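Chapter summary example.
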Amino acid sequence: MSAADGPRSRHAAGRTKSGKPRPGTGGQGRRKLEGKGPTPPAAQRPGHPAAKRASGSGSASASRRPADQSGSGSGSRRSADPYGSGSGSRRSADPSGSRRSADPYGSGPSAAGARRPARGAGEAAEFVAGRNPVVESLRARVPAATLYVGARISRDERVDEAIKLAADRGVPVLEAGPAELDRLTGGALHQGLALRVRPYDYAHPDDLLARAADAGQVPLIVALDGVTDPRNLGAIVRSAAAFGAHGVVVPARRGAGVTAGAWKASAGALARLPVARAANLARALQSYRDAGVFVAGLDGAGQVTVRDLDLATAPLVLVTGSEGKGMSRIVTQACDVLVRIPIAAATESLNAGIATGIALYEVASVRSR
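The structure predicted for these 369 residues follows.
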């Protein structure tokens, strides 16, 4: 066959004279489809890194087998090690005898120093990004550590106001490039302006009782269970400060912490009212009960209304749950009484911040009488 016949022959093999594609064999002809079978493990695939490591560890263990068997008498059991003989040799070389994890966030010895705290948890600084959020945070007197201004950005009145507010409050103003601002804010839309907020210094739940004793007043404390919105936390702190509460208790996990959003929603009340953080909220409530403080939980199924609460004049902890799920079962069991806010039947529930404000107002009214 000549070179000129090649393309024509290949073309004719796939098409009929009319130019239409030939019908397929349907998997019944000489070239029928065949399955490749199950995928072999990575250690059995030629060229895979796991196969290279397996072959390398196998040759190394083969060269060391006589010495291992003569030295320990347990060489027959070493072959059953799921980590292979290579891991066994690394484990024997470790003077502590423990297997170290390569994962810096795992359970190895180096994990404690490498684990980073969550943002907004009170142990790490938080960054507010964007011109409007930064200006609003500075207006709300959020405790700021540093104001970062982008180099060679277009200046407007918001940038000028942010720099002026920071200078008036003694907040350092630093110039940063776009890459540095992206790194600090985690890639957020910063518009050339970022504010580093100081970590919040949480109080201990017992400090709130001591604060009431120092003031010579009957303790009134607010506890939050499952409230995850920092703006709700800020609004509750604002209401608690307005109606004479001595502090707010939040859980260390599954709850909102004091962030820049909470500072803005509190309108400066966080600077006057402490927020305590409890590792176990139910245990903290039980500790309050042991100290002679009654615990009242807000619940739509409560038998007593807030206005008719006789314990309002006694030392009291008012517990608010999330808007959707309410209080958890273990926190509900730690309450002495469940109280409700009378609302219209058409309304399913109230916002956590609004409900807490109403309950605090009713308690303050009873105490004033």
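To summarize the output: The CA atoms of residues 28 and 68 lie 57 Å apart.
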